[in-house]
Design goal:
Strand order of the largest sheet: 1-2-3-4-5-6-7
Structural class: alpha+beta
Helix content: 25-40%
Strand content: 15-25%
Distance between the termini: 94 Å
Radius of gyration: 34 Å
Low-confidence stretches: 169-176, 466-472
């Protein structure tokens, strides 16, 4: 209980606080706030909890005098608590008014919180001064009003700080977006739900912490006070990726400590999305199957668990079927049903479908999108009697092979988007009355054929995607089909497009194909030397496509035996030393499994040839990306010897020209000026740069050496 003298002093302080608050409100934008007061303003989040609790407790004692045995004690304690609560509310309001001058919150969001907060303070002050009056009904009404406005002001403050749906977020966080894999967009349905749950509450229109908004891709690229939130294709220099990987206790870690953190899967999706170019306008199924964002995205769109009458296969059987190009997994922890997804077009063989014989009854979903399947290969799918979903997007199916799918009685979803279907597909599809959904956008089917299908399958939802409100659409890029980017003698390359009426323009010299610089594709191309192929699709009524690009490198020599003396870093270890001569071209994606990354150790490989061999050309296939610290080597050294009993003899040293500040990001073949006759054993050492140049943002740090192949001719 407060003494009479102390209550009198605090009452006078309360009056002075009211005057100062009124001054701040009236002269809000007309006074210069000194820095030391801004320090006090930042204590607003610390102070605000005290008055809320004290005022609500005081109101209980004032409004319900019977709460204590002695009504006089209840009134006395209630009065003292109300005085303390009102006084602390006054200091909280002052801190809030000062904080609002420098916050990143939108004024529209602050105005209601500001006036409800002032309402709490002024109502509590009036109630305290008139508490001893005999108007009990008025006091009870004022108490109820004050309690209500305290709750409203607290709710508005929490919404500004934590987000509009802060209270209900736990009930909504597991709510999925109800779209199928065919309808899924990379940003809208894979990336943005993560940002919405974990980031947008602090980075939106009403609250722009660090002047950053994350509620749209445009705002992400625009960035905040520290610059853009992300750099497409550049994971290491993207602030967003840096912040989510800092230790939780670090003050710059995002989301901040105490808020829901990203799961490992969510962090992987964000990183893969940035590495893949921060794609914002593509469907998931338009992505290359070799990118990590594609693999992670496909896993997010699974069938809902249901009951099946077949037995569960042993976990060991499932695990044996998993490898680097195929993923087999149950639909749920206890579900016997399995889904199968294939990745890596270059590694796929249609015969590998026979590997699934041990689980053909349990397989209910197969994703073969972007695989080189032809009509005859569909016969391998006919034994999967319980198959419910089949994804065959962007393959080479024309239509006759669809007859092998007609007897799959449980098949409810078939996706053939991006295939060059012809009219032979129509009668076979028309017989598949078991289908509930059929996706045939970006195929050759005419409008008449689609109408025929709709008439034959009235119970099937057919998505053709040929028109979007009269909008002129951009063509998909053409598809460049080939076995391997590294070849020995010659290579046959096909360029296809799912829309048969397109014209495909291409170049072989690395220049951009356009109306004045192109060859028209008419038949498969024969490549017999190092070539950069670029192709675009054009058609009447469509916007010309973005370019498709592929690099082909002639590599006629391969050692009979080789050994890498130093391991690459775990982050980029590819397929070990086999990656150096596997003739698989890596793509500019840090998750691509063909890259070998060296940072603390050099690339050193010893090679032996079955017979003495003439070498006329030697090169390293590299990824150059200055922003990500991917640089050519500081130097390359070569040694030779005739047999293992001899010492290695240094025969050549090469130091590449240092990169300049404006060096582009690209995949390149770095030629090493070297030739030799009758080589039996050769050792190559490529040393990463020890210190990045002064112009680089990470000057003084080590550079990465990213290699996917050693090329010899």
């Amino acid at each position: 209980m407060l003494s009479s003298k102390l209550k009198a002093i605090l009452g006078q302080v309360l009056f002075a606080v009211n005057i100062f608050v009124l001054f701040l409100v009236v002269a809000e934008n007309r006074v210069l706030i000194p820095d030391w007061l801004h320090v006090f303003g930042r204590m607003h989040p610390l102070l605000l909890h005290f008055p809320i609790v004290i005022i609500l407790l005081a109101l209980l004692l004032v409004a319900i005098p019977d709460l204590l045995k002695n009504k006089e004690d209840s009134h006395l304690y209630g009065t003292d608590l109300l005085l303390l609560g009102t006084l602390t509310a006054g200091f909280t309001v002052i801190a809030g008014l000062l904080l609002s001058h420098e916050s990143g919150y939108a004024q529209e969001a602050l105005v209601w919180h500001k006036w409800t907060g002032l309402g709490v303070f002024w109502t509590a002050s009036v109630l305290y001064y008139f508490l001893d009056s005999q108007k009990h009904l008025l006091i009870k009404a004022a108490s109820v009003f004050l309690a209500l406005i305290v709750v409203i002001s607290g709710h508005l403050g929490a919404s500004i700080t934590h987000g509009d749906n802060f209270i209900t977020a736990p009930l909504q966080k597991n709510k999925g977006i109800n779209v199928s894999l065919e309808e899924a967009e990379v940003f809208a349905h894979v990336v943005y739900p993560i940002l919405e749950n974990k980031c947008v509450s602090c980075h939106k229109a009403s609250k722009q912490k660090g002047e950053l908004r994350m509620d749209s891709p445009e705002n992400l690229l625009k960035g905040g006070e520290s610059g853009p939130a992300l750099e497409p294709h550049d994971l290491e220099n993207s602030l967003m990726a840096q912040r989510i990987n800092l230790p939780v206790e670090n003050e710059e870690h995002m989301p901040p400590e105490g808020k829901p953190q990203l799961t490992d899967e969510e962090r992987s999706i964000i990183e893969a999305w940035i590495s893949s170019g921060a794609i914002i306008d593509k469907m998931v199924l338009e992505l290359s199957d070799t990118t990590s964002i594609y693999k992670l995205a496909v896993d997010k769109f699974k069938s809902a668990p249901k009951t099946y009458d077949f037995e569960k296969v042993p976990d060991e059987t499932v695990q044996k079927l998993n490898n680097f190009y195929r993923k087999v997994q149950p639909l749920g922890l206890e579900s016997p049903a399995l889904s199968v997804s294939y990745f890596g077009r270059a590694s796929f063989e249609p015969e590998s479908l026979k590997d699934l014989d041990p689980v053909y009854r349990q397989t209910v979903s197969i994703n073969l999108s972007n695989m080189p399947l032809e009509d005859a290969d569909l016969e391998s799918i006919s034994p999967f009697s319980n198959l419910e979903k089949l994804y065959l997007n962007f393959a080479s199916i024309k239509g006759d092979g669809i007859q092998y799918l007609q007897n799959l009685e449980n098949l409810s979803l078939l996706s053939l988007s991006g295939n060059p279907l012809d009219e032979t597909a129509v009668p076979h599809l028309s017989a598949m009355t078991q289908l509930k959904k059929l996706y045939v956008w970006n195929t050759n089917l005419s409008g008449e054929s689609l109408e025929e299908l709709r008439a034959a399958l009235p119970g099937t939802t057919i998505e053709s995607g040929t028109q979007v409100s009269g909008e002129v659409l951009m063509l998909n890029p053409p598809v460049i089909r080939f076995d391997k980017a590294f070849f020995q003698d010659k290579l046959t390359v096909e360029i296809t497009h799912p829309i048969g009426t397109t014209s495909i323009f291409y170049t072989l010299d690395g220049t951009e194909p356009d109306s004045s610089n192109h060859e028209i594709y008419e038949k498969p191309l024969e490549i017999n030397e190092n070539t950069t192929l670029k192709a675009r699709a054009f058609a009447d009524g469509w916007i010309g496509s973005e370019k498709a690009e592929a690099e082909f490198i002639k590599a006629t020599l391969r050692p009979s035996d080789f050994q890498m003396n130093y391991l690459p870093e775990d982050r980029y270890k590819g397929d070990g030393q086999e990656s150096l001569f596997d003739r698989k071209k890596a793509i500019p994606d840090v998750w691509n499994l063909n890259w070998l990354g060296f940072l603390n150790n050099p690339l050193e490989v010893e090679m032996e040839f079955e017979q003495p061999t003439d070498i006329s050309k030697l090169a390293l296939s590299l990824w150059q990306n200055p922003g990500a610290r991917f640089f050519p080597p500081a130097e390359v050294k070569l040694w030779s010897r005739d047999n293992t009993d001899q010492e290695w003899k240094l025969i050549h040293t090469f130091r590449p020209t240092p990169l300049q500040k404006d060096a582009p990001t690209l995949l390149k073949q770095m030629d090493i000026p070297f030739s030799a006759r009758q080589v039996k054993q050769l050792k190559l050492l490529a040393r990463p740069i020890e210190k990045l140049p002064s112009w680089h943002g990470a000057a003084g740090n080590k550079a990465w050496l990213m290699v996917d192949e050693v090329v010899m001719n």
